[in-house]
Design a protein that fits this description.
Distance between the termini: 21 Å
Number of strands: 11
Pfam families: Asp_Glu_race
Radius of gyration: 17 Å
Strand order of the largest sheet: 4-3-1-2-9-10
Shape: globular
CATH architecture of the largest domain: 3-Layer(aba) Sandwich
Protein name: Aspartate/glutamate racemase family protein
CATH class of the largest domain: Alpha Beta
Keywords: Isomerase
Largest sheet: 6 strands, mixed
CATH topology of the largest domain: Rossmann fold
Number of domains: 2
Structural class: alpha/beta
Number of helices: 10
Strand content: 15-25%
Oligomer: single chain
């Protein structure tokens, strides 16, 4: 089994680590775009063009499925990717887990990039899946870039600023950018109020990995022998796992190490959103 994942940068790490946990025997192809990142400020057509190039590089390695582990690319490029690759290669996109977060009754906060917060795409998801629930969009300027660079002080500053913009009565937070799952525990720590019920964070990595297996008719096998290989492509070029990936538990897991005891467990992020 071979599963490819794509993103502009390190945002694919959470979904790749989730797939590694579900199928330690699966070969993984990680295809990103350091030459073209960040994708967020680009026009929709430009995002689609870059995403298609990254997807083609991954598809050349004949994966059984391709995970678009990027919210921006899923919004702007999913139809183009599916038109070119399916049915030969099933393409699994990522959307913010608004529906399961709203099912808890709210209030809910959606942490996302400034471009996504308040966008027609996000407003539509809220209208469809969170009608009657108090939902606050929280823009997080600089957070994805800080995570991409593993800049500790910049991450802390961006998380603290976003936490200041988040209502104190929230019960759930949707992580609307795949990069944010890499710092989920920092976000939880910044938002958890003393004496308040435990805050629920809704990520997408586990659900996306599970959906990819369903699309190819495979079952999770977490006890399988850890024989899966890892291939990394940077703007189409063969590369190794970037050093910045090792700053995160997900990256260390992919590099062949084990997650530390204090790393967030898979079930600490709610992952029940239906995947497109």
């Amino acid at each position: 089994m071979k599963i490819a994942l794509m993103d502009s940068g390190t945002g694919l790490l959470p979904a790749a680590a989730a797939m590694r946990r579900l199928r330690p025997d699966a070969d993984l192809v990680l295809s990103n775009d350091p030459d073209g990142m960040p994708w967020g400020p680009r026009t929709p057509d430009d995002v689609a063009a870059h995403a298609l190039a990254v997807a083609r590089a991954a598809a050349a390695h004949r994966p059984d499925a391709l995970i678009v582990a990027c919210n921006t690319a899923s919004v702007h490029a999913l139809p183009v990717l599916r038109a070119e690759l399916e049915p030969a290669v099933p393409v699994v996109g990522t959307v913010p887990a608004i529906k399961p977060a709203a099912a808890g009754g709210g209030p809910v906060a959606i942490w996302a990039t400034p471009a996504t917060t308040g966008s027609p795409y996000q407003r539509d998801l809220i209208e469809r899946f969170a009608s009657g629930v108090s939902v606050t969009g929280v823009p997080c300027p600089g957070l994805a870039d800080a995570v991409e660079q593993a800049d500790e002080s910049a991450i802390d500053a961006a998380v603290a600023a976003a936490a200041q913009r988040t209502p104190q009565d929230i019960r759930a937070v949707v992580l609307g950018c795949t990069h944010y799952e890499l710092v989920a525990e920092r976000i939880r720590t910044a938002l958890q109020r003393p004496g308040a019920p435990a805050l629920v964070l809704h990520g997408s990595a586990e659900a996306v990995a599970a959906q990819a297996l369903r699309r190819i008719g495979a079952e999770p096998a977490p006890a399988a022998a850890p024989t899966g290989g890892l291939r990394v492509l940077e703007s189409g070029r063969p590369a190794g796992l970037p050093a910045v990936a090792l700053a995160y538990a997900a990256g260390r897991l992919l590099a062949g190490g084990t997650e530390p005891a204090d790393a967030p467990a898979a079930d600490e992020l709610a992952a029940t959103a239906p995947r497109p």
